[in-house]
């Protein structure tokens, strides 16, 4: 009878079977590893043999071909008593020229009347026929030519004759024939025109050439135009995208100045490139053009081209209205600060896009230590009543950056026929106290001069954004709850 499954015999048989299976698996793995090692060794050996054969073949190809040797049958033994052969006859024989058979050949003195063939022989070398001489010369010439083709430029140069001192050598192919031309510098092109009846100066920015490359092959750039010291707030062109030679062709007017007064001003053109990685655009260069250097011809425009300077002139932020002097503007700007705004009129959608970018040098309404928070409240007026209102978030510091865009819908119709106005109120938040209005900026057809110019520029440009700095004016608004 067979033993039961749970007997001690089965318990002893199972470990033995498992042990034998493990040994077989180990042996098979060892054999497989040995076979793979042998195969890799054979492959390496075959590669080494092939490489060695290739090297031998290359060495055999580099060797010059052997010059075939021609057998020369020696003539009969020469007699012991020989005579000297004239040098002229030896040269003639080596060149392959043989005297004519009918020519009269005289024996040299002391020859003793020897025959003619004895005169053309030497004691150590036999005479070689002319046909064999020509064959040897042609074969040696062919071997030299073959050797010159197999050798490189360094071997071939050893066969060439050396140059004579004082001779003019040809230019080397490795040396540059001409130095590279310098990189062109950025240049600005503009036109000036002064109208005496209107007493206005018209500045036309044509374009900029040879801008430096940024991260890509092209750049987005624009130009700011200043009239110093009156107009420190610039007038800006539209942004030209993806071009190193942008063309603007935009006009800017500065009015109500006599020609004698205009000669004391200075035009400043500053070129900037859009930098999408940061909030501030990168400065490329500027042109400072004194108006006294211009040729002011009556009713005639004059064009100029100037190279950009990379040195940036530091300017004070001042009021840019037409009826405020330079000193009053600077004194007022130091107390309240300035606000930078971008406006865009979207005629098809009947709306205005407003971008509150940033503010600088905002004043303080309290002596409490710490940087107060600031935010801007934007209200759109139509016929004297508020039709829409927006508000930015609070940013701490005296020069906050909001970069907040807003859209305001306006009634349908021509924007010039509507009584619209935008009011920007800068609010200063204080700790444990109510917010207080620091000042305001008005932009519209009935706003002060700076706001009026910005409104007209927005309406005339259409879909192109117009950006300006505005000095914050004092206001009598009550604190917000």
Characterization of this structure:
- Among the domains are: 187-307, Immunoglobulin-like (Sandwich); 326-471, C2 domain (Immunoglobulin-like, Sandwich).
- The protein starts with 7 loop residues before the first helix and ends in a 10-residue tail after the last strand.
- β9 and β10 form a beta hairpin.
- With 481 residues, the chain is of the alpha+beta class.
- It is built from eight helices and 17 strands.
- The chain has helices at residues 8-62, 87-94, 116-119, 130-150, 153-159, 259-262, 326-336, 449-461; strands at 187-195, 200-209, 221-228, 231-236, 247-255, 266-273, 282-290, 302-307, 338-346, 351-360, 373-382, 385-391, 395-396, 401-409, 420-429, 436-443, 466-471.
- The strands form four sheets. Strands 11, 12, 13, 15 and 16 form a five-stranded antiparallel sheet that branches. A four-stranded antiparallel sheet has the order 5-2-1-8, with no helix packed on it.
- 26% of the residues lie in helices and 28% in strands.
């Amino acid at each position: 009878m067979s033993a039961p499954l749970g007997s001690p015999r089965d318990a002893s048989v199972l470990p033995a079977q498992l042990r034998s299976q493990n040994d077989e698996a180990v042996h098979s793995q060892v054999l497989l590893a040995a076979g793979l090692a042998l195969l890799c060794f054979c492959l390496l050996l075959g590669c080494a043999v092939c490489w060695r054969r290739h090297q031998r073949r290359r060495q055999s190809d580099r060797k010059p071909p052997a010059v075939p040797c021609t057998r020369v049958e020696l003539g009969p033994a020469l007699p012991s008593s020989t005579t000297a052969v004239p040098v002229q006859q030896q040269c003639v024989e080596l060149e392959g020229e043989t005297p004519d058979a009918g020519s009269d050949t005289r024996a040299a003195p002391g020859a003793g009347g020897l025959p003619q063939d004895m005169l053309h022989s030497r004691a150590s070398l036999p005479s070689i026929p002319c046909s064999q001489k020509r064959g040897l010369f042609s074969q040696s010439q062919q071997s030299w030519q073959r050797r010159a083709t197999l050798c490189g430029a360094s071997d071939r140069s050893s066969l060439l004759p050396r140059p004579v001192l004082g001779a003019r050598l040809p230019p080397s192919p490795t040396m540059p024939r001409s130095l590279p031309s310098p990189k062109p510098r950025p240049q600005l092109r503009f036109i000036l025109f002064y109208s005496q009846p209107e007493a206005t100066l018209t500045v036309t920015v044509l374009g900029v050439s040879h801008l430096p490359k940024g991260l890509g092959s092209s750049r987005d750039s624009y130009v700011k135009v200043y009239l110093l010291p009156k107009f420190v707030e610039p007038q800006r062109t539209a942004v030209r995208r993806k071009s190193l030679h942008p063309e603007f062709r935009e006009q800017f007017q500065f009015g109500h100045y006599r020609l004698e007064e205009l000669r004391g001003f200075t035009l400043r053109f500053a070129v900037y490139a859009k930098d999408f990685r940061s909030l501030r655009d990168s400065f490329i260069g500027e042109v400072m053009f004194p108006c006294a250097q211009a040729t002011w011809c009556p009713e005639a425009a004059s064009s100029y081209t100037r190279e950009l300077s990379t040195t940036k002139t530091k300017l004070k932020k001042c009021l840019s209205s037409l009826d405020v002097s330079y000193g009053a503007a600077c004194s007022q700007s130091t107390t309240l600060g300035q606000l930078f705004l971008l406006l865009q009129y979207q005629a098809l959608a009947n709306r205005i896009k407003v971008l509150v970018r940033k503010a600088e040098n905002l004043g303080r309404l309290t002596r409490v230590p710490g940087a107060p928070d600031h935010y801007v409240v934007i209200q759109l007026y139509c016929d004297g009543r508020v039709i829409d209102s927006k508000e930015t978030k609070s940013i701490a510091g005296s020069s906050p950056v909001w970069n907040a865009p807003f859209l305001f819908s306006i009634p349908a119709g021509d924007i010039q026929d509507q009584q619209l106005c935008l009011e920007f109120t800068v609010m200063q938040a204080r700790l444990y106290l109510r917010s207080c209005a620091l000042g305001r900026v008005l932009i519209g057809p009935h706003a002060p001069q700076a706001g009026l110019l910005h409104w007209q520029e927005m309406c005339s440009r259409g879909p192109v954004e117009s950006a300006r700095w505005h000095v914050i004016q004092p206001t009598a608004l009550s604190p917000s709850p």
